[in-house]
Each structure stands twice: as C-alpha cells, then as structure tokens.
Amino acid sequence: MIKLKFYGLGGQGVVTAGRVFSEAVSLYEDKYAITIPAYGHERRGAPVNTSLIMDDEPILVNSFVYNPDIVLVMDHTVVDKGVNISEGINENSILVLNTEDEKVLSEYKKFGFKEIYYVDGTEIAFKNIGKRIPNSSMLGALAGTGLLKIDSVEKAVKLMFGEKAGDSNAKAARVAYEGIKKA
To answer: What is the chain's mean pLDDT, rounded?
Structure first.
C-alpha cells in the first residue's frame, strides 16, 4: 500500500489531479486506488489537499492519509498559509515539488524527506495548455519518480479532459516527466 498526499491551492486542480491519478492507476496500471479530497467552500487560492491510496489489492479503507509515503506539492506557498506538508512523513517519504527556484528547494530540504524531485509544473502547464494550472504536469512529474507509467497518466488525462484539452494536458504531463530533476 502506498499512501500519497497532494497539496496545493484552490484553482490549481489538486482534486482533479487526485481523480486522474486514481483513474490512471485503476484503469491502466491494473492496480487499485482511492482518492479522498479535503476541501470545503473555500475560494480560489485557499489551501486544498487530497489523500490517495494505491495498492495491488483492493483497498478496504476509506480515510484521509495521515502518514504519506509520497507528498506532491503543487504550490510551494502552501507552507506560508500554515500547511505542514511534512506532517506524518516517515524516513522514506518522497517529495515531488513544483518549483525551479533554488531558494525554495533549499527551504523544502529542511522538511526531512528522503528524496526530493522537482520541476516547474506551472510554467510547463502555461507553455502547453495556456493556463497556469499545474495538475497534469505534476502528475507527469509523479510518473517521473517511477510510481506509475507516463503512458497511464497521459491516457487518464485524455479521458478526463477530452480530445483537445486532453492532448495539451497530456503533452504537459510528458514534458514534466521528461524534465523532472532529483535534488
């Protein structure tokens, strides 16, 4: 069982990314996944998170993730809004971070993740879909960690967004996958 937590801000597609991830895993990886978003009536820009669990066996729990193995952060400013992205991590937890800023990267190294992967998902999204919504590009970055196949992400993105938007979002995922770096 692999437990994940996605953090970001309202309007960045955090909840949608969780749904796409679950579909990618369930439909194209022959595994099981659940997604449990945590948000209320917050407006654009408010902190949002989604809990995800994936496994080779059917998942019999339906709860938030409190001890994530992988944390994906779509906007590095969530920590400035009081979100503790390292809560519950273990000595093997991995971080996938949306940034190219060395200063941000050095700040995030202090959280104690075993490995940190990073890419500028927002800029990749802007160049490929014309919007600064990094959900698809960050799913591509997540595939770059080896957790799932980029082909599965691309198929699930196309399924979620339809033909035209799906193609550009799948391209953003592929670019992030190919451009991910390890700190």
So the answer is: 94
Q: What's the whole-model pTM score?
A: 0.94
Report residue 22's pLDDT band, with 50, 70 and 90 as the boundaries.
Answer: very high
* Cα–Cα dist 46/84, whole Å: 14
In the predicted model, what is the mean pLDDT of residues 75-104?
Answer: 95
Please give the distance of CA 117 from its chain centroid, rounded to a whole number: 11
What DSSP assignment string belongs to the chain? -EEEEEEEETTS-HHHHHHHHHHHHHHHSS-EEEEEEE--S--TTSEEEEEEEEESS--------SS-SEEEES-GGGGGGT--TTTT--TT-EEEEE---HHHHHHHHTT--SEEEEE-HHHHHHHHHSS---HHHHHHHHHTTTSS-HHHHHHHHHHHH-HHHHHHHHHHHHHHHHH-EE-
Token pair in block for residue 35: 């997604």
* pLDDT at residue 42 in the model: 60
- Say if residue 40's pLDDT is above 70: no
Token representation of residue 134 = 């990094």
CB atoms within 10 A of CB 136: 34
Amino acid in the structure at residue 47: P
Whole-number pLDDT of residue 65: 97
